Amino acid sequence: MAGNSTEQLLSMRVYNSLQSLGCPLVDGLYLREPDSVQELLCSPSLHRTDILKWICASICPSLKEKFKLSLSSLVQKILSKT
Questions:
Q1: Is the pLDDT assigned to residue 13 strictly greater than 90?
Q2: Statement: residue 75 has pLDDT above 90
Q3: Count of structural domains, the chain
Q4: pLDDT tens digits, residue range 37-50?
Q5: Is 1 contained in some domain?
């Protein structure tokens, strides 16, 4: 791992922690390159958002229901515009 930035090393630590905690969103991902892990965890994407939601809901389970409600209201808004 020589030459990796601090951000890449921290990304690897977070990724390894998510795997050890059984995060289903990283299950089956076998990322070995720090660049790939950093991109997964630090670049804006729906997958990153879902990982963040999983982390928050794991810490505070009541947030899981709030995330579901916000998603259903978003779907309703989209459907009402079509």
A1: yes
A2: no
A3: 1
A4: 999 999 999 999 99
A5: no
Domain-embedded: residue 14 = yes
The dihedral through the CA atoms of 34, 35, 40, 41 has a sign that is positive
Inter-residue long-range contacts of 37-44, CB under 8 Å, 24+ positions, other chains counted: 37/8, 37/11, 37/12, 38/7, 38/8, 38/11, 40/11, 40/15, 41/11, 41/14, 41/15, 42/7, 42/11
> Do 51 and 41 contact (CB within 8 A), yes or no?
yes
Show Cβ contacts of residue 77 under 8 Å, excluding neighbours closer than 6 positions.
none
Cα distances from 36 to residues 42, 50, 82, in angstroms, run: 10, 17, 37
The amino acid at 45: S
Residue 66 has pLDDT above 90, yes or no: no
Residue with tokens 């389970």: 61
Domain residues for the domain of 68 are: 6-81
